[in-house]
Specification:
The complex is a heterotrimer of chains A (314), B (340) and C (304). Chain A is mainly α and 314 residues long. Chain A contains 11 helices and 1 strand; from the N terminus they run E-H-H-H-H-H-H-H-H-H-H-H. Chain A has a single domain, classed as MetI-like (MetI-like fold, Orthogonal Bundle), CATH 1.10.3720. In chain A, 66% of the residues lie in helices and 1% in strands. In chain C, 33% of the residues lie in helices and 22% in strands. The chains are: A mainly alpha (314), B mainly alpha (340), C alpha/beta (304). At the A-C interface, strand 1 of A face strand 11 of C. Chain C: It is a peripheral membrane protein.
Chain lengths: 314, 340, 304
């Protein structure tokens, strides 16, 4: 959906300023400046504030996923009725939930499962989608048509509804949620890859390469596949972002991780009963979901612009 | 033209058949014994066997499939284990509630996003672009259920501006005819009920529109930018056309097609997101029904809801295509050319 | 020409066009150009010479550039004039027709609405505007104009579309028509028809025409005067016969020499402009002058 074909736009604006060596708020020569420089190297010269924000958010999430359990100030699972629903304060930075568990600790521990589930779902669904597209592309015409019609039918369901149905059918567990989400998400990739492949095989440069006598295999490996993969991995960031939100939504509806585990979506669901009295229980997990999703979306967007040679930023 | 319409309608019917088939395979995927669920927890082996025969589960696969399709044609979606009612009659009560929410949200989205997107295109520059991008990404990243919850807390619980949940206030529920409170209020001829129902829709619609608003703003903006760079816009300027007429008479009509296509897809996504929003606001719609059914492991109710959602999505696509053909002579010309 | 002593309809003095921005390059430098009432002038140059930029700068069509100098039309100064004044001139005083008639018409609006637009925005009633639009289409040789005016541009051929574009340009009764490569996108036969039509209208309506073209061949029979542009400057300006018979500037000689001749020796290499410039080599053009802002297109992934 986001990989729209490049469009010719007459640019009436002035050419943008030259690349700025420093972020405006970072003093040169400090550690912050070093980080900013590193980020620039990774993100490209034209990276703006939003690009850096995306990278920082994703790095923070990765950090939490790796060291979260060690830096969590409290035991995320230990219920303590005496400290139930404490507001954010010195002892509990983000407050406690109804069972008296520390919200911050639960968020830190929950980062890993959120990240693993989202990345796992996206990798699996992208793989399935790409393989289906490749099979369709090399199959006889009627089979290709048939496969793509099936894909269209999958796409006729909003992904959360399809995932809900499948998760319900498989029974409530994190595994069934992951399976359901892969089922819900692969068709979009399949359609995208198939479209790119079709576009590439009928493009004039492939035609030209064919006329020079290039073999079918070489044609595939040099032109068609690289193009299709580009279109897939520029999507990855946005897909992960979408998967994080979708998993959280399913958990909120009560499908997925079983209650005691520190899952961000179910934490919001827990907090909804107390939202008028203890806003922090629902607020912070939701904020965490938002920041994680936004981080991946920004990073994906940055990489899309950076990696896709047909997108030129003025 | 008629030929195209017929072909498009035929295609939609085919898609609905595909949707139904997919749902049928989902019923076969389920672990456990639906006959056992239908007969109840305390049923004897004999009762389970009876239920199996009644549901046709003892017959061959192909026959079951045909039986299922035949049932669908007569509006038979099976029985809900939790409400003890036919799923179809349950759905007839809840679907209008959801459709009403989605339609109102759509109107709200268009009413806000089209002017904003236009402004973003006309004022296009580095800072305006950054704001648009940020809004689009935030809109896509905020979980709609959380946003709904936070709005409920802030606007309803803390500030008391809007009702906290439900579809109508005490004593203001119009007699149920269609299930959509706005329509029922009009049918009942009660302006106070209508106002009350609309009032109850404000918060859910605002929450539900957020992720879609951002997408529409961005699309309107990029479609307009594309159009504003064309020669026909330059030609219009050379005729002496001023900026507002330019946007209203030249750019917006040309950008309407792609925006409409986006809205068509969003209709389906909104149906999905409505599941979450309804659950927060305790609205008796399809989403709440689906969620209850999932929690109660009421398989036929879940699959019925999934089926209806898919079918509505297909129909929305059909409507968009037909409307597009009516308003865009390019589309019309290509179909006429194709049919000739 | 007889009108030299009269005050010209269009009087351009020292026109300079600069790309907007901190260090936007200047792409047109010190252009002087006069067009008398009813006169047909051709502005000739290769692509990138700045001729289209000049055309657009007359009525400030490109918001991406800054214009300096003076453009007087009908004794009113246009450079620095408020947008309102320019809007009043566009379409009613100076009209333009563009290179590609396919692209110049909005695909989702009816022909009649697009042709009548210059009248509608000037307060002419819908009915009257439509009547005059149809009349103009008819005058320009669109068959069954009343009926076809209700259709959309996709249903018209290239030549017909250029007639529609011309009708929209002429319906407001302008005194000057700026034709920016009006035939480049059309095939040769249709080109001729369209050009004949322009000349005919110019004669009948007393309409001045400024042709912008890279094609010396079409200039000879149509224009009274030729101005040759190169690297954003006018290098030669004079009556068409004089410029063709005794070109003063080596670049003009090159342009004339580069027109392929059907009676030339088939074995000979075609002449290029560079051949004539070997003798009088000029200083290289300043950086950034060889692209007009309209050519600066940007590949965009939907974000820009």
């Amino acid at each position: 959906m986001t990989a729209s074909p490049p469009r010719l736009v007459r640019e009436p604006q002035a050419p943008p300023a030259k690349s700025r060596p420093h972020l405006p708020w970072v003093a040169p020569g400090t550690v912050g400046d070093g980080i900013a420089r590193g980020a620039r190297t990774l993100l490209g010269r034209h990276a703006g504030v939003l690009d850096v924000v995306g990278l920082v958010l994703v790095v923070l999430l990765l950090l939490a996923a790796v060291v979260g359990p060690w830096i969590a100030p409290h035991d995320p699972y230990r219920a303590d009725p005496t400290s139930s629903l404490l507001p954010p304060g010195r002892e509990h930075l983000l407050g406690t939930d109804d069972a008296g568990r520390d919200v911050l600790s639960r968020l830190l521990v929950g980062a890993r499962s959120t990240l693993l589930a989202a990345v796992g779902v996206v990798v699996a669904s992208t793989f399935v989608g790409a393989v289906v597209a490749a099979v369709a592309a090399s199959a006889p015409r009627w089979l290709d048509e048939a496969i793509m019609r099936v894909v269209d039918i999958f796409l006729a369901f909003p992904s959360i509804v399809l995932a809900l149905g499948i998760a319900a059918a498989l029974g409530p567990s994190l595994t069934s949620v992951v399976v359901a989400m892969v089922v819900a998400m692969w068709p979009a990739t399949a359609r995208l890859v198939r479209a790119v492949m079709r576009q590439t095989t009928s493009s004039q440069y492939v035609e030209a390469a064919r006329l020079t006598g290039m073999s079918q295999r070489r044609l595939m490996s040099r032109h068609v596949l690289p193009n299709s993969f580009d279109s897939v991995y520029v999507q990855l960031g946005l897909d992960i972002s979408g998967a994080i939100v979708l998993i959280a939504g399913l958990a909120f509806l009560g499908v997925g991780a079983a209650p005691p585990s520190a899952d961000w979506g179910s934490m919001v669901a827990q907090g909804r009963e107390y939202v008028t009295t203890a806003w922090w229980v629902a607020l912070f997990p939701g904020l965490a979901i938002t920041l994680a999703a936004v981080g991946f979306a920004l990073l994906g967007d940055t990489l899309r612009v950076r990696l896709d040679p047909t997108v030129v930023r003025a | 033209m008629t030929r195209f319409v017929l072909r498009r309608v035929g295609l939609a019917a085919l898609s609905v058949w595909g949707v139904a088939t997919l749902v049928f395979f989902m019923t076969k995927l389920i672990p456990g014994d639906p006959a056992r669920v239908a007969a109840g927890r305390t049923a004897t082996a004999e009762q389970v066997a009876q239920a199996r025969a009644r549901l046709g589960l003892d017959r061959p696969f192909a026959e079951q499939y045909l039986h299922y399709l035949g049932g669908l044609v007569h509006g038979d979606l099976g029985w809900s284990a939790s409400t003890k009612q036919p799923v179809a009659s349950d759905l007839a009560l809840v679907v209008p509630v959801t459709l009403q929410l989605v339609v109102v949200t759509m109107v709200l989205t268009v009413a806000v996003a089209v002017p904003l997107g236009t402004l973003a295109a006309v004022r296009h520059g580095r800072s305006a672009d950054t704001v648009t991008r940020l809004v689009a990404i935030l809109g896509g990243g905020v979980p709609v259920f959380w946003l709904a919850l936070m709005l409920q807390w802030l606007l309803a619980a803390k500030l008391g501006w809007v009702p906290i949940s439900g579809s109508s206030g005490f004593g203001h529920a119009p007699p149920v005819v269609t299930g959509a409170t706005l329509v029922d209020s009009v049918l009942a001829g009660s302006p106070t009920d209508l106002a009350d129902s609309a009032w109850h829709l404000v918060l859910p619609a605002v929450a539900l529109s957020a992720p879609f608003m951002a997408v529409v703003v961005r699309n309107v903006r990029s479609a307009l930018l594309g159009v504003l760079g064309t020669d026909y816009v330059a030609f219009a300027v050379s005729k002496g056309v001023g900026p507002w007429r330019l946007v209203r008479h030249h750019a917006l009509p040309a950008a309407a097609g792609s925006t409409l296509a986006i809205l068509g897809m969003q209709f389906g996504w909104m149906l999905g997101a409505a599941v979450l929003v309804e659950s927060v606001f305790a609205m008796p719609g399809l989403g709440t029904y689906l969620q209850q059914a999932v929690v109660n492991q009421d398989t036929f109710a879940v699959l019925g809801g999934v089926l209806v959602t898919g079918a509505v999505f297909v129909l929305a696509g059909l409507v968009v295509d037909l409307v597009q053909m009516l308003i865009d002579p390019r589309v019309r010309a290509s179909h006429l050319g194709g049919a000739a | 020409m007889s009108g030299v002593e009269r005050c010209p309809l269009l009087r351009v003095r020292d026109l300079a066009v600069r790309v907007r921005g901190v260090d936007g390059p200047e792409i047109v430098h010190g252009v002087d150009l006069d067009v008398q009432v009813g006169e047909r002038v051709a502005l000739v140059g290769e692509s990138g010479s700045g001729k289209s930029t000049v055309a657009k700068a007359l009525v400030r069509l490109d918001p991406g550039v800054e214009v300096a100098g003076s453009v007087q039309f009908d004794d009113a100064e246009l450079v620095g004039a408020p947008e309102r004044t320019l809007r009043a001139v566009r379409g009613a005083g100076i009209s333009m027709i563009f290179q590609d008639p396919m692209a110049a018409l909005n695909p989702v609006r009816r022909i009649v609405d697009q042709v009548a637009e210059p009248l509608l925005i000037r307060g002419v009633g819908r009915r009257e505007a439509a009547r005059r639009a149809v009349e103009m289409l008819d005058r320009l040789g669109v068959p069954r104009a009343a009926e076809r005016a209700r259709s959309y541009p996709t249903e018209f051929s290239g030549g017909m579309r250029q007639r529609v574009v011309m009708a929209a340009a002429l319906v407001g009764g302008p005194q000057l028509l700026v034709a920016d490569e009006p035939t480049t996108a059309l095939d040769v036969r249709v080109q001729e028809q369209v050009l004949d039509l322009v000349v005919q209208q110019s004669d009948e309506l007393g309409l001045a025409v400024l042709f912008i073209t890279h094609d010396l061949g079409i200039v000879a029979g149509l224009a009274d005067r030729v101005a040759v542009m190169r690297h954003g400057r006018i290098v030669e300006d004079g009556p068409v016969d004089r410029v063709f018979l005794e070109p003063q500037h080596p670049y003009t000689r090159g342009l004339i020499g580069a027109v392929p001749r059907i009676d030339a020796d088939p074995g000979r290499r075609l002449a290029t402009v560079a051949d004539s410039l070997v003798v009088a080599r000029e200083a290289p053009p300043p950086a950034g002058t060889n692209r007009s802002p309209a050519d600066r297109t940007q590949l965009d992934g939907g974000r820009s």
